[in-house]
Each structure stands twice: as C-alpha cells, then as structure tokens.
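User: Can you fold this complex?
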Amino acid sequence: MSADRLVKKFGDLTAVDDVSFAIGPGETYGLLGPNGAGKTTIINMVAGLIPADSGSVDVAGIRMDPGSVAAKRNLGLVPQELAIYPDLTARENLNFFGRLQGLGRKELSSRVDTVLDLLGLTERAGEQTKKYSGGMKRRLNIGIGLLHRPGLLILDEPTVGVDPQSRNSILEAVGNLSTEGTAVLYTTHYMEEAERLCDRIAILDQGQVQAEGTRDELITLTGGVDRISLVGTGRTTAAAQALTSLDGVHRVTDSGGTELILTVTDGAALLAGIVTTAARSGMTLASVSVTRPDLESVFLHLTGKALRD
Amino acid sequence: MRALWTMVGNDLRQRLRDKSVLIFSLIVPLALMGVLSLAFGRLGTGSVDLQPATVIASVEDSGPLGAALLESLASVESMKVTVRQVSSEAVGPETRTTGAALGIVIPAGFSSALATGQPSALQLIEGSGSVLETSVLISIVTGIVDQFTAASVTEAAARLGGVPPDAAAGIGRIAVTGDPILHVTEGIAPAGQLSLRAGLVAGQTGLFLLFTVGFGVLGLLAEKEQGTLARIRSTAAPQWTVVAAKALVGFSLGVVASGVLLASGTLLFGVNFGSPAVLGLLVLGAAAAATSLTFVVAKMVRTAEQANVAQSIVAMVLGIAGGAFFPIQASGFMAVLMDLNPVGAFIRGLGISAGGGGVAEIAVPLVTMWGFAVICVMVSLFLPDRGAKA
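Assistant: Here's the predicted assembly.
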C-alpha cells in the first residue's frame, strides 16, 4: 500500500499533515508516536473509514476511499478498541465478518476453523464472547482481521490493556505474518513493540512524520552515543575532571554530587577504563549503568519530549 | 445483497438473543393493555353488565300511576330491580344505610295531578351503592314520568279541542304506546371510533411500534460505541447496506411486533379489527412511518443513550397526541397537526377497519403514514450527522 501526502483537518486542528509512506508485501511498518500524534486518523484514512482532505491511499494498486469495495477486500482492520459482538459466539463473529469480506461458504468454514485454532479458541468457539477474558477477546479481535487473509493488515495499538502472556502471543502472531507475505501497518506508543516487530518505522508527532527508516537508521539521528551513569560518593568532582580527559568521552555532567552522567562513543568498550579512572580519583561507586540509544532517545532527540508524554 | 442479508440476519439473531425486543415490543405492551383494560374494563366492553339493584319506595298516591311506576321499575329487562315499599319517612334512611341504588317517594295526588296537568313533585334519593346502577334507574324513572306526562298533556289537549273524554284518553294512550315518528339506529361511526378496549389495543400497538423500530437504525449508535461499526465499514460490504440493513431490521421487527400485538389483542381482549388484509396495509404504513422517524433521531443524537431517551420522548409525545391512551380532541391548527400524527392515523385506520371499512376507506390514514415516512426520510437527508456515521 502507499499513502501519498495525506492531510486531514478537524476544524482548526490539522490532525494529519502531509504524511506519505509505503509498505511492501511481507513488510511490517510501524507508526510510532504519543497519544494524539495522528496515528488513528491515518489508519482511518488508510482503512477507508474517513476520506482524506487531500492526498491519496492505494491498497493493492486500487484507490482507497469510503466507498471502495474492491480496495477493502484486500484490507484487514484490527481497531484499537474491541470490535466484536458480545452476544455472539467467537465462531458467529468470525462467520459474520468473513461473509462481509466476501468469503464463500466452504472457504469461510475452513478459515474460521484455522483462525480459531491459531487463536487457541477452538474449545470455546461456541461460547458467547461476553464470557471471554480480556485476552481472549483481544485475540479474537485480531483473528477477525486475519480471517480473509488480507494483503494489508492494519493493527491499531492491539496490545493496549493486554496481559503480558496475551501480549507476547499477539506479537508472535504479528511477527509471523511477514513470512506469509502480509503487509502490516502497526501503530503503537510502545517503543519495545516497534523495535521488535517493525522493519521500518515512522516517528509521528503533531500529525507529521518527524523521521522514517529502520531502527538503526533512526538511531543514527541521535549521533549514536551511549549514556553511562556513575552513582557513588567521595570525590566526585575530581572524578568528573579526570573522566573528561579520557578519549571517547564527549561530556560529563555532575548531577547533584552523587551521580555523574557521561555521554560517550561505544560505552561498552570504554566502561572498564571509566570505572578505573573514577575509582582512582577517589569516587566510591555504588552503581554503574550503560544506556544504549533507542527509539525513545530518537523521539526525545527529535521532539524534545518523551514518547509517553 | 449478500452483505445486506448477512447484516440483517446478524442483527435479528442478536435482538432475539438479548430478549430486549421481546420485552419491550411484546411483553410490556401486552401487560399495559391488560392493566389498562382492567382499570377501564367495565366501560371497555361496549355492553355493560348492570348489577342487581334495590329501590326503596313509598307510595302515598292512591291513583294508578304511582303503582304503575313501581311495576315498570321492577320489570326492567336490562337489570334485576327489587322494589321494597316502606313509609315515606323511612325511605331516606333505608336508602342510605342498606346499599340500595335509589329511593323514591311518590306523593299523594301524583296520579290526579298528572291527569289534570297540575304540578307534582316526585322525590328521588340517590343510594350509596353503584353510581352506574343509580344513574340508570334515575334515567328509567325520568323516562316513565315523561311518558305519563306526554299522555296526560295529549289527553288534556284533546279535551280542550272538544274530543269526548273516552276518545281523548285513547289519544293519550297512543301518545305513549304508539310508534315513534323518529327512529334512532345504531351504526358504524364514520370517523372510525373504536370501543375503549379496542382503542387501548390499537393505541398501545401504535405506541410500542415506535419503540420497537428503534432497535433498527438507532442500533447504529450502539454499534459505533461497540466499535463494530468501524469494522463493518472497513469490510467489502457496500456503504449503503449498513444503514439499509438497520432500517430493514427495525421495519421487520415493527411489522412482526404490531401483528402479534393486534392478534393478541383480538384473542385476549375480544376485540375485532376487521379484514387482515386491511390490517396488514395499516401495519406496513405505520412501521414505515415509525422507521423513517428513527433516521431523523439517529441524525440528531451522538450516543446510544441519547438515542434511547430521544426516541422515548418522541414515542410518548406522538403516542399520547395520537390517542394511544385516551382519545384527544383539538381544533384549528392543532387538529391539523394531530391529523398528521402517524399514531393517530394508525388508530383511525384501525377504527375504520374495525367498522368494516376496506382499502378505499383507509386511504387517508395510509397516505398520512406514508407521507410522514417520506418527509422524515427527506428531512434526515438534509440534517447534519451528529452521531451514527461520524
């Protein structure tokens, strides 16, 4: 699929501002951003739920708009909130949405069995879903999106409010989709999920793409420096002066007399020398930590605020 | 079309499974019909069963008319009347203490006064029993006295005209017993009046039809809150099928529920609404009008809760104004407005049908209901969407 220069305004608010991206078969593409960044609005336009004010979306080469039945046949949507019928069983839910996606009787029956098995819900397929646990409902919510083997699967924050076990199971299932050639558009504000699943990531803030690329490409935007924290007592000022003169150390910040924060290139390699220098300078170390740059750092670097703000 | 029927089937399955339709469309209206019928039951049958009544009487008149009056009371066919004679002083106390329906004091000279055209006072004392039986007895006494008066006035007029006394008395008797010049016959009311009981069945059916159809189009708002609307709209189902399916569900539920209510009313309350074919046309018209109204409501509210409140208000206003609980009279502009009320049109149509009217006779109510439906759909097309599709 491809999105080209999408714009969406709600009154005076520009929710999505000139956003473009493309996803190839078998690729998992992440939209990473805090709440209110415009992720769900982009998804609504890609899924044909709302029209774009300008710009366009193509799915499998077909222009997507709210009335485009052909484009929607290639699409599976897993909304952020549960979108299942509580009075129907899991099998009835799957049958209903499968029919709406145009699956024939035989194929539908076979796919429903396969998906129930994949979700681990076969034994409870005949129960009304209002009796399911939160995790089971979440799994079914995803299963409905997968049922008709769409070319593009959109997952809008599918792990929000999910227990760790179900979360792992969901992430594993999404990870397997790429091997089947499914293009996945994945939105999240969990950095770890984006790092684990996505081949490429767009960092969104205030409706705009701030940066796009692979994880490593994004991290180079921060300059690729590590952060080392030394916590301890004694002669911290003398230690800070000594550490500043070491090769590879860019900056040393004394944080309140009990913690030194160092910005370094390749922290792992320098760590032994740094600890030795600090100790020889008279600082008694209580703890040492090395932080590698991650997407959180990238987001902080690009927007000046934390991802979860 | 496959998507349309899939959505209709899915909705109907859920509605039947959660029992809400069954409760609000059938059980509640039938219960209300029962309660209201019990409350107004004796008036509702159209032929009231009068209870046995006692008349306490004192006859001081030595002439024939006083005795004739009491005989006439004792031989009334529509109710069993027991006449007990006491002294004139005892009539009042006994009437009040024994539960008698009526006390009568026929004074001395009553017969001769009537015969000579002189004034005479007949004293009636209302009992502490049933108001209905007392009123009926007073009407009967008044009628008998009027007959006596008519006979005596006629006889007196004949004598003044020079007619011999025997012939004048004969003319007086003819004035009472002869065939009346004017005849009153019971027939079908042209405005389609229903008996009280039939009116209750018709009214409650029309009122709850407005609630029942709400399970259709207004369900869009519930689906929106449930998240399933967005999912449906992301599928390959054509956009128009989403609203069409809801409308079809509301319409179908309305038709079935109304049909069941009218049939139940016929069986349980002994009312007859006439030809099933005419009834069918009326039910289809009413269901169309009610369904179209939900399009307007759905456009004006944001949440399912607001929709339920709004639909309830609209249903109660239209129901009461249409005569769902009791007949409403108005004149001028209000009367015109009430004529356009689909509930009122439905009840009028049922009245015409109950009186033996055919398809031609119900044309006006049908046009009113279908016209209402068309106007509501047109209005809904131009209203800004605040909820269901947003």
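Residues 3 and 85 of chain B are 83 Å apart (CA to CA). Confidence is low (pLDDT under 50) at residues 187-191 of chain B.
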